Structure formats: structure tokens, C-alpha cells
Amino acid sequence: MSSPPPSAPSDESTSTAASRSGARLRAGLGLAVPGIVVVGGLAYVHLGDEGDVTDASATPADHESTKDAYLDGLRASPVGGDAPNVLLVYYDDVGYGDLGFMADTPIETPHLDALAEDGIVLTNFHAPSAVCTPSRAALLTGRLAPRAGVPDVLFPSDSPYAAINEAAGVTGLGQDEITMPEVLEAAGYATGMIGKWHLGDTAGSLPNDFGFDTFLGSLYSNDMSPFQIYQDEEVLLETVDQTGLDALYTDEAVAFIGDAADSDDPFFLYFAHNFPHEPLFSAEENEGRSAAGAYGDVVEGLDDGIGRIVDELEATGQLDTTIIMVTSDNGPWYQGDAGDHRGRKGEVYEGGMLVPFLVHWPDGLDGGRTLDAMAMGTDILPTLMDWLDIAAPVDRALDGVSMAPLLAGDSERVGEHYYFYASERLLAVSDGRYKYYAQQPYVDVASGSSDVSVTQQGPWLFDLEADPSESYDVIDRHPEVAAALAAELERRDAEMEMNPRGWR
Fold first, then answer.
1. Annotated catalytic, 360?
2. 132, 341, 360, 417: which one is catalytic?
3. Which of 67, 72, 128, 226 is most exposed, with the fewest beta carbons within 10 Å of its own?
4. Is 277 a catalytic residue?
């Protein structure tokens, strides 16, 4: 299956097929890329219990006001100059098995492997979604993508595909949401973003509108048009030679870290690289270097960039005091290794959701460990709040759970349940060992054919401990487990129907 041209939507556009809106459904199916598994759709996972959620009548304006008050409260008590720096690396479409510290792979990633060896690796870490926009919304807010009001993939506002978003009434992340950079900026951090935003391109939904002091990068995926590079809110590059994109981003990251060394404030850098999302581009000197083909060339180039960034942290005396987290926004697309798990990008199976994860923080965590407890991208914001002793906002549900006790060795798990969504539709629930799928459409595509067969399949129950590839339905062996998870799915649906935004 070939990659679409730059002006066409990626496989993420088919996520709209799972939406509850009839307009979304018709638009999504009309523009779907042939052969994509619609049932996977645009998905995210929720982990943990968010407590009582009651104030469904509150308006976005109400929560913009409470947001301002919350951030003002953080500004009144900044964390101080001895707080750790935070470097969050968020690759685009890196698969579970694409990095050396996660799997036996032909792709060589010595710099990432060295961080992992001295840090902590989580082998059961889920992206918040199986596609881009909701993954990033959930990561930055700590909230389920429908709670954050951005359940579907966004397209450039001047693209013909923007009609999909307009039909749904969602064109960007709303100002009523509280994001990671806003929390950290209010707490006294210098904040910067490099790379892919993909949460809107109009006033009020741009990176600088959500707490980033500086931004260098793109507003969308590298297969969308127009693909431009912005410096804050101005276009820096109208035409982008993507063979030089990695060097541009890495140079900017090194410069940001160097400047931060001269400041009394800690820094937060969100390094959200566009690669290795297709189409694939690598610098001329990297072409042909990897045994994993062009995809491997790109990933090995990314690893070189991490080496340069770590070298700068070490040279400026900031490595031990910097929390480095490395992960991916979803599973691999046309190329890449899903780690022998069922499914790929765009699907709520484990192959679309499980991603690499490492955390490296010499001053705060004992390294050299590998943990297999479940965790997810929405847990990152609550974890940082926990480490920095920052109170969570009280007017909204945060769906993530702090990983701090797990990473400190004080707990063996993070939360109780995972909820797997396609757009606004809950498809599956997991208790950590078992994963229950409600009956839903299943798309069958034969190789070499554009014919698509859709049937209703399920319910299914998979034992992820015995069968991590989700190959064997065991619902008849464990009917009581299936019943309990089905009840949890119904409970969650009822809660979201009553108060989809999670206002309190």
C-alpha cells in the first residue's frame, strides 16, 4: 500500500467512520484511504479512575475563567530554579519494535539504548491514541481526547478535507483546556516546542496560545498540505526540503538547551518530531546506512539527534537534572515493527497502541530497570505534577494517573482500567490482563484487491498475559471476566453520555 500524496489525508482520516455524528461518518467513509481498518479508527486509551464527574452544565467560558485562576495560583508559588528540567520526546509513528532497547531490531539506536540502560524502560506503555491529533491532545492535557474536545484528526483549515472537522464542529484544541506547557510555564519553567503540533492552525489553537514561549515546527503531519515550518506564529519556510528537517529540529533543540544553561529557570522542551511518519526523508549522508531500508535510515538519524541533544545536556551540566522521556504517538503505519502485536496505526489493537517508552533522570530515579506494568501517555502530565508537587485543577477530570509510585518502586501498577476508543466510541476495555471487545464492525481486505468486506464480530476476550498478540478469543473460558468488563464498558459509556467533557 503506497503513501498518499502530500495533499491527501493519511489513514487517520478514516477515524471519522467511528464517530457518533452522521455527518462525520459520511465524510469519513467518503474520504477513507482504501484498505484501512475502519474499526480501529482514531483511538486512545484511558487508564485509571477519575472520580466523581458532576458539572456537565458548565460552559467552556466558565472553564476558561477557572483555568486562568488555576494558572495564576501556580504563578504565585513557582517551583524554583532547582526543579528538574523536562525533555519530552514524542516521535511520530515509531513502532514498539523499532528501537533497540525495546526489541531485537535491524535498526541501530545506540544513543537511545544508552539512555534506556541508565534509565527505566516500560514494556507495557500505551500511546493515548492510535492516531495523531487525539494522541497529542490527550498527552498534553492528561485527558481523554473526547474530554479535551478533540476526538478526531484535524486537517489544515484551507484544505478541502477541513470539511470533515467543520462538520464535527471541532477545528482545534479549545482555550478551556489546560495543557502541560501552560502548567509548567505558570510554575516557573521556560517552555519551548520543536516539531509537529497538529492541534489546530487558527488563532487560539496554536502552540504559543497554550503556554509555549517558543515554537519551531509544523502545524500538521509531513504528508499534509501546506507543509510549512513556523517560527512562533510566522511562516519561516514556505517550501520545506524534508531531507534537512531532522538537522533543523536537532540544531534548534541543542540551541534551546544551551540557552537554558544560562538561565536561572528550569526548562520544558517538547520535542515532537515529524518523523518517521511517511513519506520518508533522510539526509543524504544517512541514505543506505540501515539494514532496515529507508525507514531504518530515518530512525537511525533520529537516534543521532538524541546523541547530540544528550551531549549538549552533558556539556552544559544539565543531564543529571533533566527528566528525559522518549515515546511515540501511536504504533507504526505502512512500515515499522509493531512488535508481534495484532494491528497497526489507526487500530485499537495492541499493535496500534503499544509504543516504546523510557525515562532517564539520574537525580530522581534509580536506573537500570525494566517494568511491565501498564501505563499510558495521559499519565505523563499527572506524573510531572506529582514530582513537582503541583496540584491538579479541581474543575475537570484528569484521566491520567501518576506513574511516580511505580517508577519509585513503591507500587506495581498505575491504574485499574484502560478504555479504548475510536473517535467517541468505546470499543474495548482492559483490566490490565484481560481485554474485552464489544461487538463491532470488522473490516476484511484481501491483498492485491481494493474490495472491502465489513462484518460484525465479537464480543471477544483476550488474555494479554498468555496471548499478547490478541490471537485467541477466550470469552467462553472466562465468562465472569467478560461480564465484568462489559459492565465496566457500559458504566463508562453512561458516564461519558452524561458529562462528555468531564467538568466538575
1. no
2. 132
3. 72
4. no
